[in-house]
Specification:
Elements lengths: L1 H35 L2 H22 L2 H11 L3 H28 L1 H9 L5 H9 L1 H16 L3 H25 L5 H22 L9 H11 L2 H23 L1 H14 L7 H14 L5 H25 L1 H8 L11 H17 L1 H5 L4 H52 L6 H21 L6 H14 L2 H4 L5 H13 L1
Helix pairs in contact: 1-8, 1-13, 2-7, 2-11, 2-12, 3-4, 3-7, 3-10, 3-13, 4-6, 4-7, 4-10, 5-6, 6-9, 7-8, 7-9, 8-9, 11-12, 11-18, 12-16, 14-16, 14-19, 16-18
Length: 482
């Protein structure tokens, strides 16, 4: 079991290097944006990002999930190439047909989103990035399925370095405004989709099978309602915020979301390595024990991340943003927890994917999305971005619980739910104490108290026996070696 966990850790670390580097590069843009753009401007950027995110996931039709399942299971190289080529030809044709049609209606889309046609040019350039993003994303997934995390990392970092450099040049040096962001994205994705293809071209051939495509879509399309549901739960609150409170509130919420998303620095590598690892290990006799232990480790790491981001939210915002964005600290704890819930549900409800009962991903996602819309309508008019954050955390948490319960029917794993829940409850109490009793001003006393609370919390996983003697002995051995 240890060797398999080491393999997962190794791949996760390699993926993390790329994703963490990319996130750091991306975060580097936040101080630039908050000093150049007003909350109103950032609200425009954030809303366009939600449109692009939706179209990216919709045009994939969940086919990447089907390709992953069939590609890993295939025994012969020819069968692998058939799967990879069929998926590639389909997403290329589909995206390059749909996007030009949408561009023709960019003015109407602008009016629908912003009640103004002023932003149609921004939308046109942003929409043009989508086919190249889809190709790049597909090639990145192919690198994962081929167990090539190093190339995955290099291309991820390379893309973000190019996009960031171009963004700084266009927005800061040339001062061309918001449109510079989308021009930089378009150039970067075009260049690296070509690089991605060159790295994975040995996986493709002139093969296409409608039968295989049906198989890919039948496995993958149930993920589409789930993906759309995630989109609704993650982004729909922006539209309600714009309608009830204006683009300024959207901008504040977007910055809070960006800061809370720092939590993914600790989990992105794991998320990339997890899928291939699950399908390669689930048949092993100790597979369930491995998954249970990984769940504990993931909960511990993510809980610490939520706690750090929440209790130091004021300090982080003072580094990354100007004073007009400081109110965003209020939503950071809620969003950080919702991101963890968003990850825990789909990634550890592994029985649904293993049993190929992905239909359960679809209907649970739809119900959660409908619940999220109802909660947004209920909370946002009265509580603004706080209401949006509460609606998001409730939706993701309930979805995660339901999917885990369904998964246990098909592939039961002895997850330690009780102890992990207690750990998160204790972390929530600490966050409440900090927000309720410690001053918002940046002082040595407040920072010292926060560090003391954090150090005290470090004993909780040991007291709850989420980390046992074997892990402690292994850590001691590693420390002696270093």
């Amino acid at each position: 079991m240890i060797n398999k966990l080491k393999r997962l850790l190794k791949d996760s670390l390699i993926y993390s290097l790329g994703r963490i580097s990319g996130s750091i590069i991306s975060i580097f843009l936040v101080p630039i944006y908050t000093r150049i753009f007003s909350p109103h401007d950032y609200g425009i950027i954030d809303l366009i990002a939600t449109v692009v995110a939706f179209l990216n996931l919709f045009l994939l039709l969940g086919i990447e999930n089907g390709v992953a399942r069939y590609y890993v299971d295939a025994k012969e190289n020819k069968d692998k190439k058939l799967t990879a080529s069929t998926g590639l030809f389909f997403i290329t044709a589909f995206s390059f047909v749909v996007i030009p049609i949408l561009i023709l209606f960019s003015k109407k889309l602008s009016f629908l989103i912003f009640e103004s046609r002023t932003y149609s040019l921004f939308l046109t350039v942003a929409l043009s990035t989508i086919p190249f993003y889809i190709l790049f994303y597909y090639f990145q997934n192919m690198l994962k399925w081929r167990f090539q995390p190093t190339f995955f990392t290099i291309t991820s970092v390379g893309l973000l370095l190019l996009q960031t450099s171009l963004t700084v040049y266009l927005v800061v040096s040339l001062k061309i405004g918001i449109i510079g962001i989308y021009i930089a994205q378009l150039i970067g994705l075009f260049v690296f989709s070509i690089i991605g293809f060159s790295l994975t071209k040995s996986s493709y051939s002139i093969l296409f099978s409608f039968k295989r495509l049906r198989g890919l879509l039948s496995f993958g399309t149930p993920y589409l309602p789930l993906s759309i549901s995630y989109y609704i739960m993650t982004y729909s609150d922006r539209y309600f915020l714009r309608y009830f409170h204006g683009l300024g509130e959207v901008g504040l919420y977007g910055i809070g979301y960006k800061v809370a998303s720092l939590i993914t620095l600790l989990t992105v590598g794991f998320q990339s390595a997890w899928g291939p690892f699950v399908y390669s290990v689930y048949k092993d006799k100790d597979g369930r024990k491995i998954f249970s232990k990984v769940f504990d480790y993931f909960c511990i790491i993510s809980c610490f991340a939520v706690l750090i981001l929440s209790i130091f939210s004021h300090e982080i915002l003072k580094i990354f943003a100007t004073e007009k964005y400081f109110e965003a600290y209020k939503v950071i704890p809620f969003i950080a927890v919702s991101i963890v819930a968003y990850t825990l549900g789909p990634y550890f409800s592994i029985g649904i994917g293993i049993s190929k009962r992905t239909i359960h991903k679809g209907w649970t996602g739809i119900l959660a999305a409908l619940m999220n819309i109802g909660l947004n309508i209920l909370f946002i008019p009265h509580y603004g971005m706080i209401g949006a954050a509460i609606a998001t955390i409730l939706s993701f948490s309930i979805l995660g619980v339901v999917q885990m319960l369904i998964s246990q029917r098909f592939y039961p794993v002895g997850y330690n739910f009780k102890s992990n829940f207690i750990m998160y409850f204790i972390a929530s109490l600490i966050i409440f104490i900090v927000y309720r009793f410690l001053p918002a001003k940046l002082t040595f006393t407040s920072i010292g108290l926060k560090f003391c609370l954090l150090m005290g919390f470090a004993s909780v996983p040991f007291l709850l026996r989420l980390i046992g003697k074997k892990e402690i002995d292994y850590i001691k051995k590693m420390l002696v070696k270093t």
